[in-house]
Amino acid sequence: MTLSRKTVSKPIHFEGLGLHTGVPVKMTVHPSSDGISFRLGADRVIAAPENVTDTTRSTKLGQIGTIEHLMSAFAGLEVTDAEIELTAPEVPGMDGSSWPFVEALLAVGLEDCGHAEIPQLYRRVFIKEGDTEIAVAKGTGHWRYVYNTGTRWPGNQPYEALSVVDSYAQEISKARTFAFAEEIPMIIQLGLGKGLDEASALILGIEGYKNDARFEDEPARHKLLDLIGDLYLAGVPIKLLNVVSERSGHTANIKAAAMLKQATEA
């Protein structure tokens, strides 16, 4: 069974601040027929789990930080090939979601750039580490994420997409990154989140949201958005997988992506 590969019909330009560094960055998504890669100056890195160098509050690929939202947009729109050129080592944070990327990709349109054999998942991928769980199986695009904060509000918050590609643009991509109100001083002290503000980050107070939420379950949707972007590093179309995850973050996501890639190469 073959897959029609897709790339952007023409270069797309973005400009903003790095989500964590706050450094101004210009980014161009170029048409390609050679997979997904990121380029900073002369350095080029292929989007693959083995090239991830850090998973502290975001996913870093080589020296390029916070690639998960853009990768998620590619996964949701089934983009298989693109070269991303940057002027600074972090993808722009935009509005804290992947929607600006989705909107721009839809506006310029996608085109076929060849065919490839669809990777076959030869075995189920399963991670269980404490309260964190990720299960990946061959399927039809049924994805579920459970965001669980225990006794702290909002407690148990699930989100489920029965057809992840069909749901992606309107129901998943618009969910923004978020933070607990009590963690903000530490985040500032660590020099993180410099490219965010109250419009681009949802703040979770101890009894409710501190600013306007786009969805009642926005944190769960954003965690699924991140999971989609991280797992797409394995190169498997998300509509061919059924995925269930609870309390997973970037570290577990990338471990699962590595296992998924290995399971399709067995």
What does this structure look like?
There is one protein chain. The protein is α+β, with helices and mostly antiparallel strands and 266 residues long. The protein has a domain at 2-120: Ribosomal Protein S5, domain 2 (2-Layer Sandwich), CATH 3.30.230.20. 24% of the residues lie in helices and 31% in strands. The protein contains 6 helices and 16 strands. The strands form 5 sheets. A 5-stranded mixed beta sheet has the order 2-3-8-4-5. Strand 14, helix 4 (184-189) and strand 15 (202-204) form a beta-alpha-beta unit. Helix 1 (68-76) packs across helix 5 (218-231) and helix 5 runs parallel beside helix 6. The chain is globular. It starts with a strand and ends with a helix.
Task: Please give the structural blueprint.
Layout: E1 2-8, E2 12-17, E3 24-30, E4 36-40, E5 43-46, E6 52-54, E7 60-61, H1 68-76, E8 82-86, H2 99-108, E9 110-117, E10 125-129, E11 132-138, E12 143-148, E13 156-161, H3 164-172, E14 178-180, H4 184-189, E15 202-204, H5 218-231, E16 241-246, H6 250-265
Parallel strand pairs: 4-8, 12-16, 14-15
Antiparallel strand pairs: 1-9, 2-3, 3-8, 4-5, 6-7, 10-11, 11-16, 12-13
Helix pairs in contact: 1-5, 5-6
